[in-house]
Design goal:
The complex is a heterodimer of chains A (about 250) and B (about 350).
Chain A lengths: L1 H22 L6 E11 L2 E2 L7 E2 L5 E18 L4 E3 L3 E5 L7 E7 L2 E10 L3 H4 L15 E2 L4 E10 L9 E7 L9 E13 L5 E8 L17 E2 L5 H8 L3 E7 L1
Parallel strand pairs in A: 1-13, 11-14
Antiparallel strand pairs in A: 1-2, 1-7, 3-4, 4-5, 4-6, 4-8, 4-10, 8-12, 9-10, 10-11, 13-15
Chain B lengths: L1 H20 L34 H11 L12 H4 L52 H5 L8 H9 L2 H11 L6 H13 L7 H6 L7 H13 L14 E2 L14 H5 L8 E2 L21 H10 L19 H11 L5 H4 L11
Antiparallel strand pairs in B: 1-2
Helix pairs in contact in B: 2-6, 2-7, 9-12
Classes of the chains: A mainly beta (about 250), B mainly alpha (about 350).
Chain lengths: ~250, ~350
């Protein structure tokens, strides 16, 4: 008798489970495109041809600008979060790399976007990788293993490097020279993500901020930062170079 | 007579034909050849192949890459140019590494053995994962002076490699991740654990008096850093060597930026040490006697040298000879002549 009840209970349980599985509607996955636009102050960045002035009034040009964005998170008002584990390598020279797409965002009203500028420590220690984290992308230090999070190259007449060169290769995941920065940007009016409409966000990246606040970078003193020496100073500067330009539609 | 000649000719011909069509069994790698066996007494390795599942095809690809100068800019230098099998993959009698166009490197070539028990690589420990280590010699201007994108391009254009990648990874994609993982399988399986010392520990072999004395002296004087069974504690230490102003190698401090790490280098494992001469990060000592003289003389330079080596001051000549006799028991012929690591181009 007991056995019969057990068997009945078990079959009921399995039936309920099967029913639950077949009736529960899969959660919709929405696409969100995020575009990064590189600026210097209020002007759109022009590689090579654009001439800019830093806070110290020193002229400079930019010939290369690349950086890693990863672990994008979206937060709802109730605190629930969407987290992506993906990494993107943005390169000013390749338009398509500045247009990121997340394809599995649950619908809802989101109030904040956050992401890493850099590559988390685990991914810095995970050995050979492909895609954005492939060392062929030239954003990898072999001699002291780790990714270069942000690479800016250019020139300034006051630079004391050969050819008045400027090079800022900023990276490092180990304390006390950890250059990973978590960026959080509140979305004042929020972004409503739904299946039936295109969801888009445009973020401004301002190179001028890499060289100002908290520290004004004097190019006659700092023209080449390519390892942990002074990297933290630049990282503190770049932690406020992002802002929301627009939420569409 | 004529008939015998004909038969003999045909027989020779068939034999020759066979040797061309059939692979020499010496170079065939089976599933059993790539099984990871943790030797008795060894800890679990730091690198465990979890994200790089061992297979004969990947291993064979790694072996092919290891012995191929295609990795260098002008196709002259392979990994094996400096890492010689007979020297436990160090470079016999070369104090400093030799690179492209006759350029001389800054450090002594390290032996390749028991690599998966290390948590960092290079004498300064700058490399944090076995898989990414080869990027250093490949891209270093005085070693192979090549770029990763260019290596990938050369391999993609090479039919043999496309086929080897396909058999290893089931499609023809050639990328740096696969290249590096294949090399990690080949070098990661270089495990030395069958020396006379190991057999002595397992009671399969006896030591003579000098070797027994040497082991006891070793345990009293050297074990603090050269911890059994790997003969390293994987730490970085400054052993009071006189700074070389020409090379100006500050060791671990290059990686950490800390003055306290000045001229600290990774404690090397001593297995096969008889074969890996010359010694030290810059190959300054040509034989083991000179190494022991350094410790025994007690003439240590730089203020941050590791004072635990003071205990070695005044080692006598007999004691040194006994320690050397013991160190020679760490030679592992089974590893040095392991067919799995032989140059496949000689088949």
């Amino acid at each position: 008798m007991n056995r019969l009840i057990n068997t009945l209970a078990l079959s009921l349980y399995i039936a309920a489970l099967v029913a639950a599985m077949s009736f529960s509607k899969p959660v919709a996955k929405c696409k969100l495109s995020i575009q990064f636009k590189n600026y210097v102050g209020n002007e759109l960045l022009k590689l090579d041809s654009g001439a800019y002035k830093n806070e110290a009034g020193q002229l400079y040009t930019v010939s290369k600008f690349k950086y890693y964005i990863g672990h994008i998170q979206l937060k709802k008002a109730d605190g629930t979060e969407y987290v992506s584990k993906e990494y993107f390598l943005l390169n000013e020279d390749e338009e398509s790399t500045k247009q990121l797409t997340l394809s599995d965002v649950p619908p809802g009203d989101y109030k904040e976007i956050s992401f890493l500028l850099g590559v988390d420590s685990l991914s810095n220690c995970s050995g050979a990788q492909s895609g954005a984290l492939d060392p062929v992308n030239g954003m990898f230090w072999a001699w002291n293993t780790g990714y270069i999070f942000l690479k800016m190259e250019g020139s300034s007449p006051v630079s004391t490097s050969p050819g008045h060169f400027l090079e800022f290769h900023i990276g490092g995941y180990k304390e006390p020279n950890n250059c990973i920065r978590k960026i959080s940007l509140p979305l004042k009016a929020g972004i409503k993500i739904a299946e039936e409409k295109p969801n888009a966000l445009i973020i401004k990246t301002d190179i001028a901020e890499v060289f100002r606040s908290p520290v004004t970078v004097d190019f006659s003193k700092y023209s080449s930062v390519t390892d942990f020496h002074n990297a933290g100073m630049i990282a503190d500067n770049y932690s406020d170079m992002f802002s929301i330009l627009s939420v569409a539609p | 007579m004529k008939r015998i000649l004909v038969v003999a000719t045909v027989f020779t011909f068939v034999l020759l034909l066979n040797s061309f069509t059939e692979e020499n069994p010496y170079f065939i790698i089976t599933k059993k050849d790539v099984e990871l066996k943790i030797p008795k007494g060894f800890e679990q390795p730091a690198y465990n192949f979890k994200t790089n599942p061992l297979s004969p095809e990947v291993f064979v690809l790694g072996r092919k890459l290891f012995y191929d100068p295609i990795l260098s800019k002008d196709q002259t230098i392979s990994c094996s140019s400096c890492h010689q099998r007979i020297a436990a993959f160090a470079h016999i009698d070369h104090p400093l590494s030799h690179g492209i166009a006759g350029l001389i490197g800054k450090r002594n070539v390290a032996a390749l053995q028991n690599l998966i028990w290390k948590d960092s690589y290079m004498a300064d420990g700058g490399v944090n994962n076995l898989e990414v280590q080869p990027i250093n010699p490949i891209t270093n201007a005085i070693e192979m002076n090549e770029s990763l994108p260019s290596v990938i391009k050369k391999l993609q254009a090479n039919k043999e490699y496309v086929a080897a990648f396909q058999s290893a990874f089931s499609d023809t994609v050639v990328n740096s991740e696969r290249l590096l993982k294949a090399l990690a399988q080949f070098t990661g399986l270089m495990i030395s654990s069958n020396s006379r010392y190991d057999k002595y520990i397992n009671h399969d072999e006896k030591f003579n008096e000098s070797e027994t004395n040497g082991l006891n002296l070793f345990r009293a004087h050297c074990e603090n850093c050269h911890k059994e069974p790997l003969f390293t504690d994987n730490s970085y230490r400054n052993i009071g060597l006189k700074p070389d102003t020409a090379l100006n190698d500050s060791g671990r401090a290059i990686i950490t930026g800390l003055q306290s790490d000045y001229m600290k280098f990774k404690v090397p494992g001593l297995r096969n040490v008889e074969m890996t001469y010359p010694y030290m990060h810059d190959g300054r000592f040509k034989n083991l006697k000179q190494v022991l003289d350094h410790y025994a003389n007690g003439n240590f330079f730089t203020s941050n040298y590791d004072h635990s080596i003071d205990r070695n001051k005044g080692l006598t000549e007999t004691e040194k000879a006994d320690i050397i006799a013991f160190l020679k028991t760490l030679t592992d012929k089974e590893f040095l002549y392991d067919r799995r690591f032989a140059d496949p181009n000689f088949r």
